[in-house]
Design goal:
Strand content: 5-15%
Order of helices and strands: HEHEEEH
Number of helices: 3
Shape: elongated
Distance between the termini: 25 Å
Largest sheet: 2 strands, antiparallel
Helix content: 40-55%
């Protein structure tokens, strides 16, 4: 894997974790919105980096025994799913969103869960930003060595 591949993986991860933070921020902002359903971001790995996946990819190239396949790695944002848990029913007969019995459904957002998830996304974002900065530093040092 080259330096540019590392920067590319880090840049893609920055976008993905930025979207994660946006989803959790939207959930937290709508914690008091009636009938709001919590959104959950779905992330996937671009390659199967499990032991089984690496062995299967090595198995296909019989003559490259003992060498690791060229796996790029990385993460993708696959979309958003809605949390299936129901919010609490609250009796508010005058509310515009009330059903025929006068009940509204409270948001099913748990602030602690979304804050924790947003903090994890922030840490992942920071780690990928550090990856890009370290890679830039390595490239700069390689250029300095080449000049000497």
């Amino acid at each position: 894997m080259g330096l540019l591949n590392s920067i590319d993986i880090g840049a893609k991860a920055l976008k993905v974790h930025g979207k994660r933070i946006d989803v959790h921020a939207k959930n937290i902002a709508n914690i008091d919105t009636p009938n709001y359903v919590r959104k959950i971001p779905v992330l996937n790995s671009t390659d199967d980096l499990s032991f089984h996946g690496v062995l299967n990819s090595m198995k296909e190239d019989v003559f490259a025994v003992g060498t690791l396949p060229d796996l790029q790695g990385g993460v993708t944002f696959s979309g958003i799913v809605e949390d299936p848990t129901l919010g609490e029913k609250i009796y508010k007969p005058g509310h515009p969103d009330a059903d025929e019995n006068g009940y509204i459904r409270a948001s099913n957002v748990n602030a602690m869960v979304d804050i924790a998830d947003a903090l994890m996304a922030q840490r992942a974002y920071e780690a990928n930003l550090a990856l890009i900065n370290i890679t830039k530093s390595m490239a700069s040092r390689a250029i300095d060595i080449g000049r000497s």
